[in-house]
Amino acid sequence: MSRTRHWSLGGKLTLAGVPFLLLALIAVTLTLWVSWQLDGGAAAVNEAGRLRMQSWRMAMSVERQDADAMRVQRAEFDRSLALLRDGDPERPLFVPWDAVVRARFDAVESHWTQFQRRWLQEGGGRPDARAEAPGALSRDTADFVAGVDAFVAAIEAHMSRWTALLYLCQIGMLVLAVAAAVVIVYAGFALVIEPVGRLKAATLRIREGDLGARVERVTSDEFGTLAEGFNRMADHLQSMYGQLEARVSEKTAELEEKRERLQALYEVTALVARATTLDELARGFVSRIARIAHADAAVVRWSDEANQRYLMLASEGLPEAMTEVEQCVNSGDCHCGTPDAASQLRVIPIRAQAPALAHCTKFGFATLVSVPVRLHARTMGEVDLFFHSELTLSAPERSLLEALASHLAGAMENLRLNALEMEAAVSQERTLLARELHDSIAQSLAFLKIQVQLMRDALDGGDAAQIQQVLGEIDAGVRESYGDVRELLVHFRTRANAEDMEPALATTLRKFEHQSGVQARLQIQGHGLPLSPEWQIQVLHIVQEALSNVRKHARAGCVWLDVQQQPQWRFEVRDDGIGFAHDAEPLRETHVGLGIMRERAERIGATLEVMSTPGRGTSVILTLPPLRAQPTPPVPERAETVA
Could you tell me where the DSSP H helices lie in 96-193? Predict the structure, then answer.
């Protein structure tokens, strides 16, 4: 089976140009060779021309009988003949030998031999040369020079033929160059320009809307492959254009569906972020999902822990009579609220399920879509969608409804966790408030109760001195209780500064000076990252409690608050008061405020140190952990900003 040979574009151009290249190389080589021959012949003509001059010089030396000159000239003449006979390998000098040139050269050598025998002898010239017939030397020299001229003329005649050959080669090269240019131009036009022009014309036709344009002439080279690809592309483009409208409509519908899906998710996400109560969340969700699913009615139900009852939280489009009937649905009484099937979305044809869904049929509903509301494999409720017509859901529609139900489950769980968090915060703050009251006002009131009893005893006994003493104790106790109450109110109004701790500390010290009359000084060193508001609250309460202890027990004249921000936050409250021994009553857990300070420090992972020397004052040092190691407090102190 024969195979068709396909020539590439490069092969065709090579085939067109190689013969001319070979001919050009041959012509150039021949031209160089002829030029070399001409250079060697020209040098030979010059050397042969020197023989004539040397002949006349020897004749003059013979007449003068100058033996030394004749020896030198004879040796020089022999060297010239040898150079013409053998050539010069160091430069282009060689005789272009042929029969005529060879005969002329032999004649020159023969005449030279006769000239030497007659006029030149070994040792320098004949002594009787003057006795010869007058003019004999001149005639012999003229004859010898004539032979040399004949030899030069033969060389020049031979060189004229080489010159003619050189001209012929140059004319051939010129003709070859013109022919090669014509062939290359034609090959370029036929193999490159014309195919490109056909491709360009077909491309312009397609650009103008003629999708039936094709490249008609297809060669076997690269342009042929390109033309075939262009034709296939045009076929595909024409086929695609025929279906373009349908495909555009299909893609438009897909994009619109995705847009609606994203818009629905965005609306539900915004609702989840904004809703603060379960009722607000349920009402907003049921109205949105009814619009998104194009449902005639929608219901959101919340299940109890045992999944035995499903309570209606909100409804949209449901008849009032049906709303009253389905306020609470027991599990198993209806297709709504079925925990066994709550793990997946269900499409229930209502008419096929009669009489189980007779009340739904009564109100004209034909299809029920039940979407479970689940979080971490726990059923929290379900969303029921009612339709007056029969309905089938596509996979994207099922996915969207399940995603919306998942958002609802997360939002309901967040509301529950927020409620628990607020409850825990209130409970914890109440505990702290009870401890504060117990450690301060309660003890003062107990003291006043004892003093009141002593006052009764003094009044019954009529002891005036005792009465005055008890009245003084009662007055001091009332003042102490009043100070404690004012201090607690100040503590409860404490707020955090999200940017800087220094203003809050300065305000705390000014209030302390106003209440106690004790001078207070603040010193801050270094620059560190700001503390979070929760951490600032805890630190301020600890500092306030330390200052309260100074006011009550230290009898100090001055208080210093030193704050160091690097490498970690460190707060030191020190005074110049009376101090106490380490094993004394103030260090016990029953001491006013000390236990609360330690609990607050433990809550934020800080360390609290109390150092005191009797007569030299007390220092309370609070050291916070590095910022990268600071844990988030488990419960934000929301109630601590209450006035």
Answer: 99-119, 136-188
Q: What angle do CA 228, 230, 231 make, to 5 degrees?
A: 65
- The vertex-270 CA angle with 338 and 343, nearest 5°, equals 20
Q: Quick check: bond before 567 cis, omega within 30?
A: yes
Alpha helices in 389-442 (DSSP H): 395-437
154-to-45, 85, 147, 158 alpha-carbon distances in Å = 10, 15, 11, 6
CATH number 1.25.40 given to 9-180:
no
Tell me if the bond preceding 349 is cis, omega within 30° of 0.
Answer: no
- Superfamily the domain 493-641 falls into: Histidine kinase-like ATPase, C-terminal domain (3.30.565.10)
- Using one digit for the tens of pLDDT, what is the confidence trace for 430-482? 666 666 665 566 656 766 777 787 778 778 887 778 888 878 878 777 876 77
454 Cα distance to chain centroid = 83
Q: Terminus-to-terminus CA distance in the chain, angstroms? A: 105
Alpha-carbon distance of 285 to 267, in angstroms, equals 9
**DSSP 3-state of 346:** strand
Instruction: Provide the CATH number for the domain formed by 275-393 in this structure.
Output: 3.30.450.40
Quickly list DSSP for 450-485. Answer: HHHHHHHHHHHHT-HHHHHHHHHHHHHHHHHHHHHH
Exposed, middle or buried: residue 550 (CB in 10 Å: 0-12, 13-18, 19+)? buried
Look at residue 418 and tell me whether its pLDDT is greater than 70: yes
- Specify burial of residue 632 (Cβ count, 10 A radius: 0-12, 13-18, 19+): exposed
DSSP 189: I
Q: Which single residue is written with the structure tokens 């003019």? A: 135
Could you tell me which of 367, 363, 385 has the C-alpha nearest to residue 298?
385
